[in-house]
Design brief:
The protein has about 100 residues and is of the alpha+beta class. The protein has three helices and four strands.
């Protein structure tokens, strides 16, 4: 399994709007993607953390290549306090 992590820092006043955009754009599209095991969106205003658990690194890469994150960045540019930070991890244990 493979986990992709994206950290978002929204402007305080645009937090709800940014989260709603993420849910409507990224979460909705991810639900139908091959290889997706689980996607979680955690919030701690004004920050959010998205975790995607995929069968393989290739499945995660394929989803990223759809361009949905670029679309989200364009739509949410006024909501973001800074550019999102991404990281990837391999899952060693999962229950």
């Amino acid at each position: 399994m493979h986990k992709a992590i994206m950290e978002y820092n929204f402007n305080e006043k645009d937090f709800e709007t940014g989260c709603a955009l993420w849910k409507s754009m990224i979460f909705e599209k991810a639900q139908n993607q091959e290889g997706l095991i689980r996607m979680v969106f955690l919030t701690n205003k004004p920050k959010a953390l998205a975790l995607g658990i995929w069968e393989t690194k290739e499945h995660a890469r394929k989803f990223m290549s759809t361009g949905i994150f670029l679309e989200f960045l364009k739509a949410s540019v006024s909501c973001l306090a800074q550019q999102p930070k991404n990281d990837t991890w391999e899952i060693s244990a999962f229950y």
